[in-house]
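During the practical work, I worked with a single protein chain and the tokens that describe its fold, as given directly below.
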Amino acid sequence: MVLFPIATPSAKEEAAFVQSLLTRGFARIRTNDDVLDLHDVGQPSLHKFSPLFIVLDRLVIREDNRTRLVEAIETAFREGEGRCSIDIIDHGRHSYSTDFLCQGCGRTFEPLKPILFSFNHPLGACPECKGFGNVLRYDPELVIPDSTKSLAEGVIEPWSKPSSAWWQKQMLSAMKRQGVDVEAPFQSLPKDTQQLLWEGNKSFDGINDFFEYLEGKRYKLHVRVFLSRYRTPFDCPGCHGSRLKPDALFVKIAGHDIHQTTERTVKSLAGWVDTLPLRQSEREIAADILRQLIAKLGFLQRVGLGYLTLNRQTKTLSGGEAQRVALANQLGSRLVGTMYVLDEPTIGLHARDTDLLAGILHDLANSGNTVVVVEHDRRMIESADYLVELGPHSGEKGGEIVCAAPTQEFIQDRRATTARYLRGEDQIPQPKSRRSGNGKMLVIAGATEHNLKDLFVRIPLGMLICVTGVSGSGKSTLVEDTLYRSVARAFRVESLPMGRFKAIKGIEHLKGIRLIDQQPIGRTPRSNPITYLKAFDEIRRLFAAERAALQQGLTPGHFSFNAAGGRCERCEGSGVEKLEMYFFEDIYAPCEICEGRRFKPEILKIGYRGKNVSDVLNMTVEEACSFFTGTPKLQDRLRLLASLSPPGPTRHHSVRRRSPAFEDRRRAQRLLRQRCTLYHGRANDRSTL
């Protein structure tokens, strides 16, 4: 019997329901066990049965009935809104659907699309965590960072602030009434008492009530900043870190969903793809996909990244790993006749990885491309086909081509500083003695984040310690994610998620911690070295102390290009104006009012030793050191900045870092002057004409 399901009518609608079926030509209906004829007046009430099926056709399965069976099934799908059932005598009922339907529970699914498996799209992202894989929750370790303190000593950190004194007072009163020892360490209190502090009761408001109260004031910026200090990402309870909605995880290949697949390493996944148990028809359908997948996995293994898991977040990759992922992508693109420009790609790379990188760059060049690399690494320099050295010194005494020649010819050149090191004439001297440290240790036990395998690390204090190893071995994970973040959390410097570890000891031997990385030093585009070192404050005070400034009532704030009053209001102290271009990139031109000097004319008239504030900002550090003699506080900061450059005439860092647009104009002017010089025949090398 060919059937299709139909909704059970109510008692009032049953007569009209039967008449409608008869009008449409359906004469039989199937209940749980019986087939009822709709023409039979003495039939039982249909509203008592569920489910109901309309009998569309009854036939014997034979070859000559094939056409009749197909037509009946097509009609059943059409009348049954995509559902059809086949009831075979002594073999039970079989249900089918044109939709993605679970035969067990009747749930339907949307047609599969590639975007369903992307956590960056609303169609595939977990609705609870929005595709992030974690949710922000208030972290007990941040709220109660030191459990050795007592309630009276302010063990609840957010209640130790003056603005939260009422919450602390009402909690202490309630605890005393209930007989809790408020002088005892928090860790010694019973578990139910600790839980009571979070949940509260009728006599006092707990920690959860405190945060719930502040959540109602999130429209205030300072409240949002305050709350962010006590929240930490936790695995999403909905997707358990997979970042995808359940529908995407229901789809499996060889018993594995896409999250389980991306948890594999590149090397493991390549082996799994090669051994997929696919039928011949499935392998033909997936031929193009498999070929591209195997090729991309091969490129990643070729650049030495076979150990990475596919779901590893990009922000957790080391610098060398990120470089090699980008190179693997370029290898896969198979471009020809392209120029690749790399700016110091070996930063953070181990010597083994440098050789690997050099081989990849040679492959790109051998494919008919041009590879230009800015580099200081000896191995990378020696592997180049052609070398260009700029100099002879830094800053204003640089910008010239010292030598440009094939590698072997370059090494023999007597002018190039790099060549002297390559020939072994100059070397970096090793220290004659090593520090012995102060005898104290910082110990990390059980570090297991990312690639770390339950490490036990003893770090001697009072020494210069270098953590080295091949790219991806876990250096950044150990030093930054685990060591820095755990100590920073202890000193209340940051509250970022820490790498997993069991214990850390020796923090009491430290007074603080600082992270110095390659992130931009300024928070705004206006930041420059002199403001970052807090030395510009002293310079502004010197100008404000001049007699002319005192007569006009000028304060140190008037000599700041970041504050209204002294800055040029036309460009708001930036020195350039932005000209918006509708079909091209925006153009930056010098301000017509201040001519790029960033201050009002009356401010520029104030001089200190014959220089105005704009002239001072255009000084190099070396010039500023000799100019500001007699100002010890300022001298100390400038000398510190100057000491970070090589000795001699190479200290030429400008106090003010000019804007990118300004530097673009300077480069264009130099190029124009160079072309004019060549045109008039005054070049140093006549052969260039």
The longest helix spans residues 660-679. Residues 441-509 form one domain.
